[in-house]
Amino acid sequence: MAGKDQMKPGPDFGPKGGPGSGSEGQEQERPNAMEMVNKAEKQLGTVEVVYGPHDVAMDFAGLTVAEAENALRDLLGVEKGAEAYLDGSKIDNKSGTTLKGGQRLEFMKEAGQKG
Amino acid sequence: MTREIDKLTVKVIGAGGIGTCLLDNLCRVLNYGTSMYNFDEVYLGLVDGDQYEEKNLPRQRFEQRGNKSEVTVKRLEEQFPDLFLESIPLYINDKNIDTVLGGADVVFMCVDNHKTRRMVSHFCAEQDNIILISGGNDSSEDGSQGQMGDVQVFVRKDGENQTLPPHEYHDAIENPPEDDEHPEEVEAEERIGCLEEQMGAAQLLISNNFAATLMLNTFHGLLTEIDKHPLAEQMGFRYDEVRFDLRGNKVVTRNISGSEKEPSTSEKGE
After folding, report:
1. Are B62 and B105 in contact (CB under 8 A)?
2. Which residue of B has its CA nearest to A5?
3. Which residues of chain B does A111 touch, with a Cβ-Cβ cutoff of 8 Å?
4. Residue A57 lies in a domain
5. Residue B96 domain-assigned?
């Protein structure tokens, strides 16, 4: 599973018309980097997962929210019964909600209590 | 760097897991760093009504049993003679908070309950000039693994919020859950040692130390005014909260007050 932080292969977004670019004098429309990344993530079926300090793209499309929660429990320590929000809406039926590429899944994380 | 105060008054609340990790380095920085930070003198008051017991040894530093603030101040006085240190052997409550925290320039909060966090957060929000740096981490009691934690940074200057007070974006602080108890509501025997018995104290110690380090980093950043740099916001150097995951060695800052977008669900605390 690829995290959001990883380098992604993609088009050259360097400055136009620079030395050796071969584009001197040509006015081309430059693609928007974030649009390209977002499009790629949707094609890969990744879901943006947010929990505590983590904000990562995971290959979770097709899983239910409950399956995603279980998959992350050991890794991130997602609390049992943590409230889940999909694209900002609270999910009451975790087992009956299937994730799609491009969605944002957030598990609620409150402030640490112990000191 | 120009500063507006020559005498720094610091209050540290809690000399337990995070507090004992924080205090030695904080005192060393304050004792030897007065010229760097441009202070002439530093007063540090340590507030804690709890007792050190044998069961605290796996993750808290102390040489003798007794009240946490008195035992710790006695030890630190010998090491850092240039500091004005005072033990305040009390729990913060509604009746004493004005007296205990009054006059503080900086408050470090290292407590284990949201009721105290709420009280102190509201108190600081009513002051004209104060910095509150509050740390906490998870435990095993809530089903998580104690690997995550966070530090809230509240800066109030000339009567205006520079960042948000923790109670405004953490619902658990503003409305503590039923099982969150102020230390004065709990019998001493119940308070001591349950965490260490239930999970590996080593991970809790590392988590406590992580939080303490981030609190000290925050303090240094604010005193050296990195948040005033024109690019500070873009670089993520101006923030309300730091969140960490110790097992993944991951740390992120969150600029909630400066964010153009709506807070995420967890910040709303729905």
Report:
1. no
2. B250
3. 114, 117, 136, 150, 152, 166, 170, 172-173
4. yes
5. yes
**Rg value, chain B, Cα:** 18
- Lowest average pLDDT, out of B81-90, B109-118, B224-233, goes to B224-233
Q: Is residue A95 part of a domain?
A: yes
pLDDT level of residue B186 (50, 70, 90 thresholds):
confident
* Cβ of residue A106 closer than 8 Å to a chain B Cβ: yes
A20 touches B: beta carbon within 8 Å = no
- Indicate the burial class of B214 (C-beta count within 10 angstroms; 0-12, 13-18, 19 or more): buried
Total number of domains constituting chain B: 1
Domains: count for chain A: 1
CB neighbour list of residue B268: distance below 8 Å, 6 or more residues apart: B169, B171
Task: Indicate the average pLDDT of chain B.
Answer: 87
Higher pLDDT, A77 or B192: A77
| Helix, coil or strand: residue B203 | helix
Q: Nearest residue on chain A to B146, judged by CA atoms?
A: A77
Q: How many CB atoms are closer than 10 A to CB B269?
A: 18
Q: Is the pLDDT of residue B28 over 60?
A: yes
> What is the token pair recorded at B81?
């003679």
Question: Quick one: tokens of B267?
Answer: 């910040």
Token couple for B226? 């990195």
Q: Residue B193 belongs to a domain with what CATH number? A: 3.40.50.720
CATH at residue A81: 3.10.20.90
Range of the domain at B30: 7-268
Residue B139 pLDDT grade (very low, low, confident, very high; cuts 50, 70, 90) = confident
Does residue A71 fall inside a structural domain?
yes
- Residue from the list A77, A90, A113 with its beta carbon closest to the beta carbon of B145: A77
Of B14, B243, B245, the CB nearest to A115: B14
Is B2 part of any domain? no
Does B1 reside within a domain? no
Q: Which domain holds residue A59?
A: 33-107
* Residue A2 is assigned to a structural domain of this protein: no
Average pLDDT over residues A97-103: 95
What is residue A87's predicted lDDT score, i.e. its pLDDT? Answer: 96
d(CA A92, nearest CA chain B) in Å = 13
Hey, is the C-beta of A93 within 8 angstroms of any chain B C-beta?
no
Q: Which residue of B has its CA nearest to A80?
A: B143
Residue B189's pLDDT is: 54
Give domain status of residue B150, yes or no: yes
